[in-house]
Amino acid sequence: MLSHRLATPDDIPAIAAVMDRAITELQRDHLSPAAIVASRAAMGLDTQLIDDGSYFVVHAADGQLAGCGGWSFRATLYGGNHSGDLRDARRLDPATEAARIRAMYTDPAFTRRGVGRLILSLCETAARDAGFARVEMMATLAGEPLYAACGYRVIERVADMARGDVPVPGARMGKAL
To answer: Does the entry feature the keyword Repressor, yes or no (predicted)?
Structure first.
């Protein structure tokens, strides 16, 4: 049984630990070790999501953090607090722009148990309730199959979402709500 709630600043250490495990372990089948290291430049927690009340945590029955993820009414498509050049706090116009699905991570111990689907559902409902008709995200290669199974389509392939010396491919994906 999974439970969920909005994240608070007190959750940040547990969220960071889940993100670290997910980045390290779940990308192994898709990226080289060097690309996994490089991916950290474009991944991680953007605490603006917690401040905006749009970031969820999902717990297993035993209370362990199973996953986290959020949505945003801001223009940033992806990136953490440390990804300054990727961040844009401009508010999106729900009438003409797509909300963002952001910072989705599942603890490797909880994959294939509905955690990602639950987070997507929570985010899509919240974005729809805020007046958005569409959502977009930057997907990792590891996450792309889940998003495709949930109705997301590739808008464009990105050769290097980390913008560094080692390419980290991704896919900008979207869905009508």
So the answer is: no
Quote the CA–CA distance of 100 and 98 in Å, as a whole number.
6
Q: Looking at residue 85, what is its pLDDT? A: 73
**Using one digit for the tens of pLDDT, what is the confidence trace for 115-172?**
999 999 999 999 999 999 999 999 999 999 999 999 999 999 999 888 888 999 999 9
Dihedral, CA of residue 16, residue 22, residue 23 and residue 24, to nearest 10 = 110
Structure tokens at 167: 């390419």
Specify the CATH class of 3-81+88-176 in words: alpha beta
Write down the domain spans for the chain: 3-81+88-176
Distance CA 37, CA 39 (A): 5
Distance CA 18, CA 38 (A): 18
Report d(CA 130, CA 122) in Å as an integer: 12
Find how far residue 141's CA is from the centre of its chain: 13
